[in-house]
Write a structure and sequence with these properties.
The chain is an alpha/beta fold and 233 residues long. The protein folds into 2 domains: 7-126, Rossmann fold; 137-231, Winged helix-like DNA-binding domain superfamily/Winged helix DNA-binding domain (Arc Repressor Mutant, subunit A), CATH 1.10.10. The chain contains 8 helices and 12 strands. The chain has helices at 15-27, 38-47, 64-74, 90-99, 111-126, 163-173, 182-190, 198-211; strands at residues 7-11, 31-35, 52-56, 81-86, 103-107, 137-140, 143-146, 151-154, 157-158, 180-181, 221-224, 228-231.
Length: 233
């Protein structure tokens, strides 16, 4: 049976940018839908969730931040999101990551770079997290991760993680007490050989909020000063 090509929803109010992005993604085999405002984007994404959303933050109606919040709260399953921001708006990039974006690309951008990011995010989202011969359920104190069901429980209560947060947590748990540089995590979890390592920093902060009893004094996801992070069982 033929596998349907991935669907990508492009949310961008600049029709020229939207058309260029659509053309490049369709050339790579993606099925692309377009939305030009936040309300339309939400209606389409929640009614029939795509495999990935490319989301400009500065759109009319509910802006990109609100669209992202609603997707994270209301979508039946985590949908990977790449946000588009104006160059130099670093605060917007960090805020978008904190709300739940998987990655960001700054304008002006190369359509080839965006296409590469889309492929990398989808590759990670679709790759199995259960390694051959590895345990399907990972445990560390009150933290329990079912890699097959992609579910996380902390002290018996479910924790809602994005796809990228889940992949990062599983990667760290599968390599206990091993210190990783942010660049290594960006490559091994995100699949990027280049990029802004603040993406990793923000995802670690969000993970601590969700799985650590006290994010100020994390028990499991520990900072290795001058290096990066390590997981303590």
């Amino acid at each position: 049976m033929a596998v349907a090509p991935p669907r990508v929803l492009v949310v961008e109010d600049d029709s020229t940018v939207s058309e260029v992005v659509t053309r490049y993604l369709e050339r790579e085999g993606f099925v692309v839908e377009s939305a030009y405002d936040g309300q339309t984007a939400l209606e389409r994404a929640l009614a029939e969730p795509p495999e990935l959303v490319v989301l400009d933050l500065m759109i009319p109606g509910p802006d990109g931040f609100e669209v992202l919040r609603r997707l994270r709260a209301d979508a039946p399953a985590p949908v990977p999101v790449i946000i588009l921001t104006a160059r130099g708006e670093e605060a917007d990039c960090v805020s978008g990551l904190e709300v739940g974006a998987d990655d960001y690309v700054t304008k002006p951008f190369s359509p080839r770079e965006l296409t590469a990011r889309v492929k990398a995010v989808l590759r990670r989202a679709g790759s199995p997290t259960t390694a051959a011969g590895g345990p399907a359920v990972l445990r560390a104190g009150d933290l329990v991760v079912d890699t097959a069901a992609r579910q996380v429980h902390v002290a018996g209560r479910p924790a809602a993680l994005t796809a990228r947060e889940f992949d990062l947590l599983v990667h760290l748990m599968r390599h206990p007490r091993q210190a990783f540089r942010r660049e290594e995590l960006l490559e091994q979890v995100w699949g990027f050989t280049y990029g802004d390592t603040s993406t990793v920093t923000v995802h670690v902060r969000r993970l601590r909020d969700k799985v650590e009893p006290d994010r100020a004094q994390p028990r499991h996801i520990c900072t290795v000063w001058g290096v990066g992070y390590r997981f303590e069982p």
